[in-house]
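Ticket #4471: structure output looks truncated?

Reporter: J.K.
Steps to reproduce: submitted the chain below (235 residues) through the standard prediction queue, then opened the result file.
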Amino acid sequence: MRTLHVALIALFALTTQAQTLSFPEWQLRSEQDPLLKPRSSAYQNTEALRDEVVSLRRTLQSKGLTVKQASDSVVAMGFVALLKTDHVKALRLFNQAYAIMPENSEAYRGFGGVFESMERPLEAHEQFRAGLALDTTNAKLYRDEALLLMEDRYAFLQDERPRQADQCLDGAYKHFNKAYALDPTDNTTTYFMFVTNLLRMNCVKAWEYHDLAVAQNGRSIEEQYRLMLNESCKR
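Returned output as attached by the reporter:
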């Protein structure tokens, strides 16, 4: 695995200085650098970049990885960069992962995560939903789309638009259900199964997922939800 990691670092010789972009900055930079545009066609249309992807794919496959595993390895590096809010490095890595395997929905999750980090929910939704249109088995993608819908809900409540907030809650609830059905071990998903059931006043299910979230030893129950549960869903 160390050999694989070294190979990846060598093949992805990107800048080591984190480059955080605002959305307007990204708009300007992406016009000059096509590798900053999600699902960039540069790897298909530029011979040198196309050869780079072929070489990368062969290197990773020589380590025993499938094409999907190779693409996922690069996506994982992209999320490390995104955690450091290095939008430039993250986008380039997600594009490399996409070039290796265009149908890999994890690359779409990465693109959406970049826009979410820039506080651009519409663009993030676009990427998440495009990924889900390709792959209905990606639990993390359902989860991240649902989490973004919960953020939308909060924004609508702040704007005193309860109908739109309720629509976001319903959408989030459906997506969390799909995520949980695919991966019941994800504590974030379990926790928000508790939250969305509580907000919908499904008390039996709220307690069920509350207990599961606690048993998974994940995040602490937020005070507002703990009080709401004890006041509205006594058992």
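Triage note (M.O.): checked the attachment and the full token line is present. Residues 142 and 207 are 22 Å apart (CA to CA).
Status: closed, working as intended.
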